[in-house]
Amino acid sequence: MAFNVVDGWTVPGFTHDRDLGGGASGRVMLATDDLTSTKVAIKYLAGALGADEAFLARFRASARRLSQLEDPNVVDLYDFVEAPEGAAIVMQYAEGVSLRRMLAAQGPTGPLAALSMLGGTLLGLAAAHENGIVHGAMRPANILVDGDGNARLTDFATSPAGTEAQSGPPYAAPELWDGVPATVATDLYAATAIFYECLTGRPPYAGRNMARLHREAPVPADEVPGPLRGLIHQGLAKDPAQRPQTVADFLAALEDAAVSAYGPSWEAQGRGRLTELAAQAALHPEPPKPKQSRSSGLNPIVAGKQAGGGGGRTRWVLAAVAVLVVAGAGASAMTLLKGDEKPPPDPAPAQSSTPQPTLPVGGVDPRPLVAQIDQAVAQAPGAAFSYWQSGCCGFPASAKGTFGLVQGGQPSYSLTLAGAGAARKPVRAVIVQDRLYMRVGKKWKSAALGGNGYPAAADQVRMGSSITNLTTLLQSATKLTKSPPTESGTIYEGEAPAAKLAQTPGIGQMYAQMAQATGVQQIAFAIKLDAGYRPTKFWVRAGPENGRKQKISGSYTKWGKKPPIHAPRAA
Question: Rg of the chain over CA atoms, in angstroms?
Fold first, then answer.
């Protein structure tokens, strides 16, 4: 029987297929995206977490960063959905078994499989740490092993601050028991404790007073094979300063130990053994949850990305050093792409017998400029466009295609649209009025703009790339300057109050969200016009160039009258 209700509320736009299990922090459902037919896993947070404002604020920040992280050793996070009725995490779904289930079914994995598991786990942590995300409470239930022997991490940051030690006592670093916030060092400690369990079949410490054991008991390295004892001593050091300083350092030590003890083919052999163990564990039922552990509740048959193989030092060391280095996108107005268009002449000043309003700082009057833009695009009501949205505090979106302006109505778009995560890969789409039409297989499916997933990304694209957005920025500017004209065009750069932009019909929601996410009061922008006053490029930024910010940018080419864009017949 399919489950269609979880505590009286479900994430809109999904049909639930079956229950995947649950725990202290929530319940997980297998579901289908009604628009794309994509299978997903949805974790509905327990009521206590959904009502914990401090936890929600912390998890929102982590979810935004996780949504931008694509790594074969980390589960894709698509959306974090909040509503008055509850909160839920939408993730990718893939068949697999948890490491906890594997250990319960078969005991120790053997050294090669344990090393492969640790390597994959560390790569996932490296990607997360590079994006400012600490797992906090890692344990075997949070590590998924798929049919190809890939180890990948789930359940980042789902333990409220201060409860990490209680969420996974056998794997909690000594400092967590003292109330110290989770760090890179505590993640490495947990990864090593899990590695120890893979080698021996049990965690390094077990007893009634886990805090004292983690703080004072000798590191039980003698229980593991000799060539791997150095890794155990490093990772389980009582003093966090004595542990590896970065995941890359630990991966380098792992590679040296593995090659010295088992030869250069160790990773391929270990991955093969993990594949066998995962297949065997899948035949056994999920073990009961440990009584002493306050489990995160994420069912092991959850989400992960399909990933290829690969081995050797390039995979384990260089991959960690180079993982997810994201270049800043914030070029200044002067770095907008050059073109061949001639710059526009200065617009004629507006004539009026009434007193003139105060001009923005910089001395540029936006009124005649806006009038020239409106006239220019009315004569050429369509263009090819590209659009990007990125930043610290919002899910990314991108689009490319054409649009046509409609007199007295919203623009229509024919585009390729992409959002966050693998389930938000580029799709063919059409926007007409307030509806999104998406090509799914051989059929078109329709949904109202807004909400979550693709409809939300489409709504952002329509608002951000609209000419109304650009003219509103100019009209609202409290600062507006003009660069010296060049052969490629003229750039107008300025600032506008976020509060005023948030009140603008049609685009206000976008600026309200940007201001709320970044805490800014002013929105910076730059707009480039060709010789005919048609926009060719723009960027808009909430927040400092080098800091916590959100940014949208876009470009326009091939202005002219375009064939009308019609809504396709949806299934």
Answer: 27
